[in-house]
C-alpha cells in the first residue's frame, strides 16, 4: 500500500533520518515509536504530503507521491488519506454534521447516523463541535474518518489527551478500519496503543521495534490496558 524508500529528512544541518525504509500494507496497523524528537510527526507529515522529505521516495500503490504536482497531492489527500490528530482538528464553530460533511466524497452519501452510533454519539448531529468535551471531539474525528473511508490513515498521538475509555474507543475504531483493509500508521508513546498494533517501527533507529510485551498482542487486552492506564492518569490529574 505505502512504502517509504530511502527516505531522508533534514532541517538545515540537522539530519533526522536517512535511508529509512518502511512499508505498511492494506489491513496493517503499525505504530511509529521512538524518543521525543526522533521525527515521528515529521514522518507522518511526509507520508501525508504535509511536508516534503529531503530525499527518497514514497510509493503509494506504485505512484511516487513525492513527484505529484499540486493537483495530484490535493486529490491524494482528499480521496485516499485520513488524518487523526491529538487536537482533533475539527471546525470548532460548525456542527457535528458539518464536520462529517467535510469528509464526504463526491457522489457518496455518507451514513452519519451509523458512524456517530459507532462512536457513541448517536443523535448529536446538530451540536456545535466546541460544545463537546475533548473525548467527544476526538470521537467526532473518528466518525469523520469512518465517513471518509480512506485507504490510508495517519494518526498522530491520537490518544494523547484522552481518558481511558475514549483512548480505547480510538484504538477500537482504528483496528476496525485496518480490518476493513485500510493501512493505519499511528505515532504513539502509549504502550497500550503500541500493543494494539501489528508491529512497531522505531523511527529513531529506523528498525522494527522489539515487541514490548511478551504477554501478547491481543487487541482486546491492549484496549483494556489503554483504558486502565488512561483512567489511572485521569484520576491522578484530578
Ligand atoms: N519545520 C521545522 N523546522 C525545524 N525543525 C523542525 C521542524 N519541524 C520539526 N522539527 C524538528 O524535528 C525534530 C522532530 O520533530 P517531530 O515533531 O517529528 O518529533 P516526534 O518524534 O514526533 O516528537 P514527539 O514524540 O515529542 O511528538 C524536532 O527536534 C523538531 O524540533
TrEMBL record:
InterPro entries: AAA+_ATPase, ABC_transporter-like_ATP-bd, ABC_transporter-like_CS, ABC_transpr_LolD-like, P-loop_NTPase. Gene3D superfamilies: P-loop containing nucleotide triphosphate hydrolases. Keywords: ATP-binding, Nucleotide-binding. One of its GO terms (molecular function) is ATP binding. It comes from the Bacteria. The keyword Nucleotide-binding applies. Residues 2-230 form the ABC transporter domain. This is ATP-binding cassette domain-containing protein. It comes from Nocardiopsis codii.
